[in-house]
């Protein structure tokens, strides 16, 4: 009799809890998303019904294996754009990591040529070609200290450099601008896509503060825990690793005037256009529509 009564009570309690959860999801979608992810508003993960503060899962921090990081990253090969000098802060994140989820627009287009016939209601269409049009990325950046300002400055120089050819002096004179690679949202969405940076802009608002960063900083040993490192957890979880920030000690030093300071806006926006490109050899040897449609060509970066 007691077990029968307990079953009724548990069923009624489950109904009430379910209704309360539905009401919470309707009134507070943000709270519903946290609950579905097993997270509490304070960032702690629930384990055994209790908030485990000692093992907080920092979902906005980079993993040791960058291939498992779902955040959007734009990177380059080290021999093309080495992460040194003013770009040294990008070394630990292996390229540009966007601190906030960026707005991305991807357009796939198939082109057909119409053939118009006399005394006909409908033209005929002949297939011409297909293309992945330029990928548009709009990303917000915030800066709270001089080290985050150094990181944003490194991002700016990365995209500036990606739009310029090898010219003047050096071993690679005459080469076009370097390729970059787009990763993000897992292996089947942006699978290390080879791209060209066709446009880059940085919007610097007039109604925000500007923070100073020294472009000739000495090496800073960063051994703090998440939330205590100079470049905050928006970019990377350091653990016991060290990072050179600024341009001091890197290849190329800081160039002329490298010891001067630079002011970076506390809130700004970066917009880039990336054009996916594939060599004729890779397309001819590896592309198959059957394999592509089944997700079998992600290791070639096809979109």
Give a quick rundown of the structure.
The protein has 303 residues and is an alpha+beta fold.
Describe this structure in words.
The chain is an alpha+beta fold and 303 residues long. The protein has two domains: 1-57, no CATH class; 62-300, no CATH class. 21% of the residues lie in helices and 26% in strands. The chain is built from five helices and 13 strands. The chain has helices at 2-27, 29-36, 146-162, 280-286, 289-293, and strands at residues 45-47, 50-52, 73-75, 96-97, 103-105, 108-115, 124-132, 135-142, 180-184, 190-203, 210-214, 261-265, 267-276. The strands form four sheets. A seven-stranded antiparallel sheet has the order 4-3-9-10-13-8-5. A hairpin with an 8-residue loop joins β6 (108-115) and β7. α1 crosses α2. The longest helix has 26 residues, at 2-27. It is globular, with a radius of gyration of 25 Å.
What's the SSE blueprint?
Blueprint: H1 2-27, H2 29-36, E1 45-47, E2 50-52, E3 73-75, E4 96-97, E5 103-105, E6 108-115, E7 124-132, E8 135-142, H3 146-162, E9 180-184, E10 190-203, E11 210-214, E12 261-265, E13 267-276, H4 280-286, H5 289-293
Antiparallel strand pairs: 1-2, 3-4, 3-9, 5-8, 6-7, 8-13, 9-10, 10-13, 11-12
Helix pairs in contact: 1-2
Shape: globular
Beta-strand proportion: 25-35%
Q: What gap, in angstroms, lies between the N and C termini?
A: 63 Å
> What is the string of helix and strand elements?
HHEEEEEEEEHEEEEEHH
The Rg value, from CA coordinates, equals: 25 Å
């Amino acid at each position: 009799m007691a077990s029968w009564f307990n079953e009724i009570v548990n069923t009624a309690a489950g109904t009430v809890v379910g209704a309360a959860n539905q009401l919470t999801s309707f009134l507070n979608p943000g709270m519903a998303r946290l609950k579905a992810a097993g997270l509490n508003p304070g960032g702690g993960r629930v384990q055994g019904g209790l908030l485990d503060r000692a093992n907080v899962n920092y979902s906005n921090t980079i993993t040791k294996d960058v291939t498992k990081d779902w955040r959007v990253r734009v990177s380059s090969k080290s021999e093309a754009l080495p992460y040194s000098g003013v770009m040294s802060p990008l070394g630990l994140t292996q390229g540009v990591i966007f601190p906030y989820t960026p707005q991305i627009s991807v357009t796939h287009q198939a082109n057909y040529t119409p053939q118009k016939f006399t005394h006909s209601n409908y033209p005929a269409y002949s297939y011409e070609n297909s293309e992945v049009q330029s990928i548009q990325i709009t990303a917000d950046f915030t800066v709270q200290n001089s080290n985050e300002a150094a990181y944003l400055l490194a991002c700016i120089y990365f995209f500036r450099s990606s739009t310029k050819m090898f010219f003047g002096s050096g071993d690679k004179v005459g080469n076009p601008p370097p390729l970059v690679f787009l990763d993000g949202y897992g292996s089947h969405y942006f699978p290390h896509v080879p791209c060209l940076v066709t446009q880059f802009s940085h919007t610097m608002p007039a109604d925000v503060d500007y923070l100073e960063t020294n472009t000739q900083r000495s090496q800073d040993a960063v051994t703090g825990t998440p939330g205590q490192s100079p470049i905050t957890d928006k970019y990377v979880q350091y653990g016991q690793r060290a990072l050179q920030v600024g341009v001091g000690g890197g290849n190329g030093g800081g160039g002329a005037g490298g010891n001067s300071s630079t002011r970076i806006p506390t809130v700004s926006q970066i917009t880039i256009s990336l054009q996916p490109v594939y060599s004729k050899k890779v397309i001819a040897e590896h592309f198959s529509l059957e394999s592509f449609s089944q997700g079998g060509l992600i290791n070639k970066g096809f979109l």
